Each structure stands twice: as structure tokens, then as C-alpha cells.
Amino acid sequence: MTNIDQLSIDTIRVLAADMVQAANSGHPGAPMGCAPMAHVLFTQFINANPKNSDWFNRDRFVLSNGHACALQYVLLHLLGYKVTMDDLKNFRQLNSVTPGHPEKTHTDGVEVTTGPLGQGISNAVGMAIAERHLAATFNRPEFPVVDSTVYAIAGDGCLQEGVASEACSLAGHLELGNLVVLYDSNGIQIDGSTKLGFTEDVLKRYEAYGWHTLEVADGDNDLPALTRAIAEAKAEKTRPSIIKVTTTIGYGAAKAGTAGVHGAPLGAESLAAVKSEFGFDAKQSFTVPEDVYKYYAQRAAAGAEKEREWRELLARYAEAHPDLHADLQRRLAGQLPEGWEKALPRYTPADKPLATRKLSETALSALAAHIPELMGGSADLTGSNLTRWKDAVDFQPEPTGLGNYAGRYLRFGVREHGMAAISNGMAVFGGVIPFASTFLNFISYAAGASRLSALSQLRVLYIMTHDSIGLGEDGPTHQPIETMAMLRATPNYLNFRPADGNEVSAAYMAALQHTDRPSVLSLTRQNLPQLDGSSIEGALKGAYDLKTYGAGAKPDLIIAGTGSETSIAVDAAQLLASQHKLTVKVVSMPCLELFSAQPDAYRHAVLTPGVPSISVEALSTFGWHKYVHCPIGIDTFGASGPYLQLYEMFGLTPEAIAKKALKVIEYYKNIPVPTLALQF
């Protein structure tokens, strides 16, 4: 270890401790323990340009144990990213670029939002998948225009989380040799020693996954061993690598090696002692020796030179392979192919009834032919989700004979949570648009990661089928009731329950056009008619007038429906018009989020003030009182049986709805009808 290496490592340790002390909040232990491995990684291996943090062919770094973010912020500052010393001093303060856990949307140089343990390492798997796919798609002899490595640091907590096990198992199967994980094995978690509940041999587990395993016994001091291990991991091309690095949490502090240094400031006395031990002035805070700045500036300059060399390569590539270059540039600019919307089918009432999952298959197949970056798969439900187009090639290692890395269809296996986290990593890498599919009820398995899709502003398409009691005999274990309410309560989501083919096409159109939010397409198992009055244009507004039944100038009632219940709402309206001489407007509401974003005038034109309204949805009524006066739905768990019998059992038939509608109309004859969905 050279003097500058030791000085740099100690600077990182002290700065991280200063940050936590100033904020009186945070986690100093992991940054202090991980400083040596992070220093070696960033000064010897990671190729990136701090002056252009979006350079596409950079190596990616993921801090999976996001509570250690003081470490990452210090490194970004030293390298010259847009993280100033004042930003370090404002750690964990409101509106700072150094929040309490790394956030992709806040901080220059942060690749993914981490904090919930296990998510980051799983994102790294997705990033590695995207890199291998793009390399297989665009690289040509003498033109390795996509050629980067994904590095991650993860702790004991990350490797205890099930999502990490799901993702890492798949990574081993896929032979992702472009993924290197440094496992910070410090033997401590919040409750105390990992001996309390985590005594497995992690490396043997990862070896069983198909990973290349390495170990550094003294991660506190042995920089040559760290360098050799990372170099060996990077050289391994057919397996992902994990390096177990044994460290001391809070190295140098009075409580080093204990849970006491995990999630609380060191305290003034202990921090002063640390500074003295490492040769710093105990009375000064937030200091960086000039030699450390110069050392890291050299690495930053080397990264800028790597980008310059790559751009020269890219210019030659453009001459040799102009079509490939144009497609790569289009993808990296976030632009969809010209005219892609025309691929989406349109329907009329003359077209035959089909399940919306089948209509989704048609739309997805058409889009896959026009949008080559569309890439994804199913959690072992391909034949039910109908997400694999006819000429799709699986993303698999070519030696398996199952596909190749240029393939765009992923076999996620029964790994819903891992699937969602991997999709986030693919989305953040760029150049691909991921989709993930399972039954709607099982997005609950993936909620930890799908929530981060929204928080991170990532375009991930969740194609969820079997979306209600309409799935029938599989029963309440598989029938979502509360699921859509949970999704609708999640900020920055688009949730679609399309009622027919036009609305399915609209759902895909909106999902692809909104680049900064995930979408859920909730699709039926049972066949539905193509509705009179449905349109892509109307559905893109979230809700629209489908059709009015009856002869009155003003409706007596509005019935709002979503998904499979919209056609039932139509039947109920026809019954009320024919048997009770009422005028009933049917509103289709495939996406409440898009509707809520419309101007007041439009929303009140659809949900007419002064007119009683009901909604019909075979899910929880939670949240519907914002839009209608009487929501009709299911607020118990479902049941096992043929789906038509279930609809009758739960009162979701035209006759039952009409009966309740009459009571609503009668009730509001005597009192004013309140105006809903107001926004002030």
C-alpha cells in the first residue's frame, strides 16, 4: 500500500464520519469499513468520466447497501462529479443532492436508487443483462462499442434478502461474466452479530448458483489482494463473480466491529480520536489533502480519455456500420422508431370477443417487430401471460443451445421479485425497454422492486394477467382484490384495466410514451366484447364517454366501468334504459391516473356534476369514492368456482347493478348530488 493509497482511504473514512456527525444521522460504519475496497475499485478499475456521467460505455457501479451512501458521495466528490464539499456538509438535509440513501434522480453519478436491501445487487444483474444483450446486438469485429462491466458492493443484509437470491440465481444461469460483486462481510447487522441468524457459507451458495467465487481475508489493509481479486473477477468472462471481503465495520472507531457503529454518529470524542489516529487535525472537519484530490483527478482524467477513445471508435463504427450506428444512437437518445404507433391494432364492435391478455399478445407482437429495444419475459407463466411473440429468441448463453444474448425474451423463472428488480436495472442501463409479466395478484411478490420503479422514474411495463375473480377456479389465493388499490396508491404509476382491444392498444401506447414512470397493464383471462364507442384516443385520457343509452337530454345516472366490468356496465345501462326509461351514460375508465391529470373541464364533462354515479369493478372499492357516489365491487376475498357463477355471487351482473343503481337514483332525488373529483 502506497502512502497516497493510505491517505486516500483514511480521507474517505474521516469524511464519511464527518458527514454523519454533522447530520446527526446516518451510517458511518460501512463507509469506514468499505473504504479500502471502494478506493481500489474506483482508482484502478472503474472506467467512467465524471464530467459526463451519462457516457454510455462507462462501467456501472451500484452501492447495494445504500445506507453506506456517505461512501459513494465522498467518492463522487473526490472524482469531480457534481457533488461539492457543501453537498457533503448538507448530507441528509432537505433538498440536498446527498440524501439519506442513494437516489438516481437526485445525485450526479448515482446509477440506481438503493436502500431497501437486496435491490441494488438485483438491479446490477439487470444492468449486466442489458449490457450483454446490447453488446451481442451491436458489436462487430474490431468494433466493441458496447463493452463495460457492472460492479456492485453489497453487505450481509443484501445477501439475506430473497430478492438477491432470486436475481443472483438467474445471473449464474445466464453466465453473466460482466458482473462483479464485492461482498462486504463485516459480520455485523443492526441486531448485532450475524451469528445470530446468518451463518451459512455464502460463497458455497453462490458457487451453487454458478458464480465465480473469490475471497480477501483482510479487506482492511491488503490492497494487493483486493487488486488481484478484482482483476481476476474482471478476467472471468463466463461467470459472474463475487468477492468476499472481510472487513471491520467502523474501522478505527472506538466501537469498531460492533453494531454500535452501524447506524449512529460516532460522537465528537470518538470522531476526534479517529482523526488523530489517521493523522488528521482533530479540530478540523471536512478536509481533503490536496494530494488526494490530485490522485483522484488523475483517475477522472483517465476516464475522460477512455470516453474520447470510445467516441473515436464510434465514429469509425458509424462509417463501417451506418445502420447499426443509427439504431444505437436512436436508442441512446431515448427515441422510439418513427411510426411505431401505427403498429398498434384498432378494433370495431364487429371484431370477435377476446380476452385482453390475448389482445395484449397481438399488440406486443406487433410492437416487438417495430421496437427492437422492447425486451422482457414472464415469471414462468409465458403460456398464460402470452408475452412471447412467434419469432422471439430467448436471452440465453449460446452454448446452452437455448438462445443467445441477442435474444430478447427472458425466462425469469418463478422469481417475481427478482424479475421486477432486474427490470429496473435493465431500464436504468439504457438502450432497452423492459417488460415483466405474471398474474396480477403476484405483483405483490414484487412490490419492493416495483415501488422502486416508480420512485426511480423508470419505464418498466408490468404486463399482468388474470386480473380479477374472472380467472375463476384457481380461487382467492390467485384472485386479486386489494392489489389494484395498492398500485393506484403508489405515486408515479400508471395502472390500466383496458376493456377491449382499442383500450389495450392505448395502454401500450401510453406506457411507452411515458418514459419516466412504470405502467401496469391489468388483463383478463376471460373473453370480452369489442365495445361500441371505444377508442384509443379516449382511453389515452384515462376515462371517456363510451355511450349514452336512453333518450333524455341529460343522463339520470353515470356508470363508470373498468376492464372486464365495462361491458357489464353497458348491459346494465341498456337494461335501465329499456325497462325503466332512464338515460344512462357509460364511462370507461381504464386509467385513473391519466384521468386525474386531465383539466377540470374535461373531467367534469365526463363525470357530469349533478348526476349520480356508480362504478363497477371486480376489485376492492377502496379509492373509488373520489370519483363516484356509489362504488360497486368486492371488499372480501374471492372464491373458487366458474367465473360466471362468481360474478353472480358477488353481485356483478347487469341485473344486480341495475337494482343498486335504482336505489342510488332514488336516494339523490331528495338531496343535492355532490360534485366529486375536485382539485384545488
Q: Would you kindly provide a written description of the structure presented here, covering whatever features stand out?
A:
41% of the residues lie in helices and 13% in strands. It is built from 24 helices and 20 strands. The strands form five sheets. The chain has a six-stranded parallel sheet with strand order 10-9-11-12-14-13, with helices on both faces. The longest helix is centred in the middle third of the chain and has 31 residues, at 290-320. It is elongated, with a radius of gyration of 28 Å.
Topology:
Layout (H helix, E strand, L loop, with lengths): L2 H21 L5 H16 L15 E4 L5 H11 L5 H5 L29 H20 L11 E6 H5 L1 H12 L5 E7 L2 E2 L2 E2 L8 H8 L2 E5 L6 H13 L5 E6 L21 H10 L12 H31 L1 H11 L21 E2 H15 L3 E5 L3 H4 L23 E3 L4 H14 L3 E7 L7 H9 L5 E5 L17 H7 L4 E3 L4 H13 L5 E4 L4 E2 L7 H4 L4 E6 L7 E5 L4 H15 L3 E5 L3 H5 L3 H7 L6 E4 L13 E3 L10 H7 L4 H14 L13
Parallel strand pairs: 1-2, 2-3, 3-7, 6-7, 9-10, 9-11, 11-12, 12-14, 13-14, 17-18, 17-19, 19-20
Antiparallel strand pairs: 4-5, 8-15, 16-18
Helix pairs in contact: 1-2, 1-3, 1-10, 2-3, 2-9, 5-7, 5-15, 7-15, 11-12, 13-18, 15-16, 20-24
